[in-house]
Amino acid sequence: MPHAIRVHQFGGPEVLQWEAIDVADPGPGEARIRQDAAGLNFIDVYHRTGLYPQPLPFTPGSEGAGVVEAVGDGVTIVQPGDRVAYAGPIGSYADVRLIPANRLIKLPEAISTEQAAAMMLQGMTAHMLVRQVYRVAQGDTILVHAAAGGVGLILCQWAAALGATVIGTVSTEAKADLARAHGCHHPIIYTRDDFVAEVERITGGAKLPVVYDSVGADTFLRSIDCLRPRGMMVSYGNASGPVDPISPLLLAHKGSLFLTRPTLFNYIATRDELERSAAALFEMVENGQVRIDIKQRFALRDAAEAHRALESRLTTGSTILTI
């Protein structure tokens, strides 16, 4: 019988319960997939805690990969036997699941299902950040917070491939080495050095056109201090907690700044947008400009342990839950 992680109340990692489930035959427009792995992401924590509330009970997880077992009426995008991956809708912490077939992407031969489970959400997020939210160009100098994390490592590599100089924040020397090996030219150990002062030093006082901040409360206001006039503050996560409200006047006082809070699912809402984003990601991985490093593996039934490691900042790169 298939199993899944289920959440019946919001809370800490202990609310992630391993339970037997029934999975129906796919209805019109649906596919049933047997999963090989699911990706672990901070958005899963936000769903679990209720920061981004979901109707209870629910199965968390926003990305996964596996093989199509069956399809419902009207499905032509995929067929049984296809290796597929996806980012959203939630429900990936499961052996077997139903999903709208139009959210599935068929995998190239060169990309394994485990690799795909580790990169769809994070990789398409990186694509959104450097090609759509702010179009990184050769000669730009940018700041990436959590540079040794899952999105961070991909973002550093992608931006470096575009010709940018990448500054990144990390918490340890080991993470600095990891970020440096993935395209980060100037890793800053924020537990030791003031990243605002370091940005000033590295840029000779010119500051930055863009900051990518997934940390949230601990870094937001000081990230704004790293921007040059008319720079863009991209807040795309809350790893340290949600950002307190600010007055729009702050953006004026700091130099007519732009502020955005992008969500990937608004950038891959249509089938065409999804396919273009996935194709761009696959191209970067297949040509070697972006490496997907799976640094941690947990059994799906041990999802609570994986969440504890993620929230304790003990993970680097990508983490998958294997099935």
Automatic annotation (TrEMBL):
SUPFAM superfamilies: GroES-like, NAD(P)-binding Rossmann-fold domains. GO terms for cellular component: cytosol. Keywords: NADP, Oxidoreductase. SMART domains: PKS_ER (SM00829). NCBIfam families: PRK10754.1. This is Quinone oxidoreductase. It comes from Sphingomonas lutea. GO terms for molecular function: mRNA 3'-UTR AU-rich region binding; NADPH binding; quinone reductase (NADPH) activity. Residues 11-321 form the Enoyl reductase (ER) domain.
